[in-house]
Structure formats: structure tokens, C-alpha cells
Amino acid sequence: MKEFINNLKGDKVIWAFIALLALISFMPVYSASSNLAYSANGSGNTVSFLIKHFAHVGIGFLIVYMVHKIPYHYFKAISMIALPIVGLLLLYTLFQGKTIGGANASRWIQIPFVGISFQTSTLAAMVLMIYVARYLAKKREVEDTFQKSIIELWLPVFGIILLILPANFSTAALIFSMVVMLVFVGKYPLKYLGIVIGAGVVGLTFFILVAKAFPDAFPNRVDTWVSRIENFTSDKPDEDNYQIEKAKIAIATGGIRGLGPGKSVQKNFLPQSSSDFIYAIIVEENGLIGAVVVMFLYIMLFIRFLIASHKANTLFGKLLVVGLGFPIVFQALINMAVAVELLPVTGQTLPLISSGGSSIWMTCVSLGIILSVTKKDEEIAQENLEKAQREEALQRLIEREMNGENVEEEEEITNEKEPQYAIEDVSDNPMKAVMGK
């Protein structure tokens, strides 16, 4: 085990937090999946859900390991290629008209031959953040005008967000907020950033008016997220309020120490107890202590991302850590805030803890890229050490060669002064010396 840990590259503290969050996820997912087990087939067998979550986490760790081996600067080119592909996937996802339980669910696509549902917005968010980091790093080398930044930066950003917005308002809002945060960190001019934010607000208002005027154009989902905001502000009873009430009952029941692992009661009533509202189940079973521990891990992960960003040797590396790491922590805080009714229901999962394949895997890809950035620091230090050792060895070799050349030159001079003898006689007639005697 010690040898395996030593072979892991990158920030070991980030590795430790990833492992801790993944280990914490198994008990609440296993406990909360009983609701799904009874509703799906009526057997109540939760072992299959535990095995499925174990497979998702295992594949996620494999993804982290494989991605962190890739030099992070390769993702500059990858983002340029992946962005139009992601746009096409979002178009297909938006217009496929898939429904789940009679409601529009144009957020997932079915992967052929595998039977796994994949949420394309999670992939789009990650690719977009890498693309923005690449642009900001390039802008520091070659100054761009505001008009050029609109074409190269904001047109792709608003294009991706517009494709996500009708089906998933919370993800679109989170992506836009994270992009604004990233360009602010990347020292994009504030006066231009204010114009962009204003344009975004105007565009969102226009979109809502169009959706209200033509409800058939964007069925169900637009009405859903608009009604969520209205119900949150007016406390109108609906399905979301039902979930929030059950989540608050679970949190209140947990107390300080909780009911104990697997003893949650509200998991039988919360429809999304293993994903969107898993934090409420954690608090019910582990109490305030468990709630604080989970929150503490995410806060410490955030602090570690800050340290990793500060230590990165390139601007692109710094922006990558900020653009990919901060959304993970903010998504976790949003999920916790929804459980205690500080925010309306958003549908955001708890990273690395909630069940679900695509959300875990995309989080793991982001973490792998971050670890690749931190691994670069170690590699540079090792390369510098090896370079110094090579230069020292080369210097010694040159000195030996120089000394060897001096010896050979002295031998050549000595040989020129001494007579040269040969066994073979090359004269015309060896007897000429005695023929006249």
C-alpha cells in the first residue's frame, strides 16, 4: 500500500480528500437506496445499488489516475477540439424530447450499447472552463480587444449556456457564475465584464418572456424552474416544498449525534434521497457531527485548491485549478444550502458522495486535471535535479576528455622526434650497400 501511495503523483492531500469523500459516500448511498429498491422492483434489495455505486466510484478513481498522467497543457488543444463536439451533443440532448415519468428530461442522453444515461451539461461545463482558462492565459501574452474577446470568448460561452438553459437552469446559472469568477481572477477588464453581465441579465429576461409567451416551445422544464423560484419566494405548497419539508424533518431528527448509520426514516419519503438530498440523510443518520465533517472536508478541499493554484508555475495551470476546482466546492455548498432551504431546489448533486455515474466521472476528470497541474511542480523539481546531475556528469566527462587529449598530443610530438623503425625494407636493392666491395 505504501508503495502504491508513493506512485501516486500530484498533491497527496487532494488525493486524501478525494478518498475520504468517496469512502463517506458508501454508507448514505447504501442506506438511501432502499427507497429506490422498493420503488423499482419491490424487492427491497439494496446490494445491487451498493455494487453499482462501488463500480461508479471505482471507475472514477481509474479516471482520476489516468487523467492525472496527462500533462495538463495538452488540454489547451483538447478544449478547442471538444467545444464544438460538446455543442452538438447539447443540441442533440435538447431536442431529443426524452421524458422520464411524463416530464421533460432533456438533460440526459443514452450511450449506445452500454445502457448508461449521461448528462451532457456536466461535460460541457468542464470543457468550457478549460477553454476559458486557455483564452485568458493566451490573452496575457497577446492583448485582445473587447470586440475580439466577444467573438473568441463570450460567443462560445453564451452559446453553450443557451443550449443548457432551457433544460437545466441551475447548471446554466452555476456555469455562468463560475465563468465570471474565472475571468475576474484572470484579470479581464472590469468595465467589459460589467457589460457582459448586463447582457447576460437582459438575455435571461428576454428568454423568460419568450418562454412565457410561447410555452410549447420549451415544455415543462422552463415552467419547472420558473415555478421553483416563485414557490421558494411565496412558500406555495408543491412537490419541491414536499421534498424540502422532508429534508428539514430529517435534519431536525438527526440532532447532535444522529440516529445511527442506516437508521434514517425520511429516506423512505424523499424521492431523491440518494442524490439531490443525500446531505439530509447524512445529517439524519450522523447528526450535526456528520454534517460538520462533510462540510469541513469540502472547505479544506477548497483551501487546498487555493494552495495548488498559488503554487502552479504557469498562468494556465493556475486558472485550470480555479476553473475546475472551485465549481466542485460551490456545487457542494449549493446542495447543502438546498437541503436547509437557503436556496430553491436546483437538482445539483453532492460531488463524490451522491449516487450517479456521469456526475462522479466528470468530477473525477476535473480532479485528475487538477492533480496533473500539481504533479507538474514535482516533475519540474525532479527535472531540475536530474538536469543539474547531468550537467555535473557532463562537466566531469569533458574534463576527462580534455586531459586525455593532452596526453595523446604529447605522445604524437614524442613520436615525431624519435626515429621510426619498420620490419619491412622498402629500399630498391638491399645489396647495393656491399656490391662494390
From TrEMBL:
Keyword terms, alphabetized: Cell cycle, Cell division, Cell shape, Coiled coil, Glycosyltransferase, Membrane, Peptidoglycan synthesis, Transferase, Transmembrane, Transmembrane helix
Chain coiled-coil ranges: 371-400
Catalytic reactions of this protein: [GlcNAc-(1->4)-Mur2Ac(oyl-L-Ala-gamma-D-Glu-L-Lys-D-Ala-D-Ala)](n)-di-trans,octa-cis-undecaprenyl diphosphate + beta-D-GlcNAc-(1->4)-Mur2Ac(oyl-L-Ala-gamma-D-Glu-L-Lys-D-Ala-D-Ala)-di-trans,octa-cis-undecaprenyl diphosphate = [GlcNAc-(1->4)-Mur2Ac(oyl-L-Ala-gamma-D-Glu-L-Lys-D-Ala-D-Ala)](n+1)-di-trans,octa-cis-undecaprenyl diphosphate + di-trans,octa-cis-undecaprenyl diphosphate + H(+)
Record's bilayer topology term: Multi-pass membrane protein
Region Disordered, annotated ranges: 404-437
Annotated compartments: Membrane
EC number(s) given by UniProt: 2.4.99.28
Classification via InterPro entries: FtsW/RodA (IPR001182)
Annotated Gene Ontology cellular component terms: cell division site; plasma membrane
Protein name as annotated: Probable peptidoglycan glycosyltransferase FtsW
Organism: Flavobacterium endophyticum
Lineage: Bacteria, Pseudomonadati, Bacteroidota, Flavobacteriia, Flavobacteriales
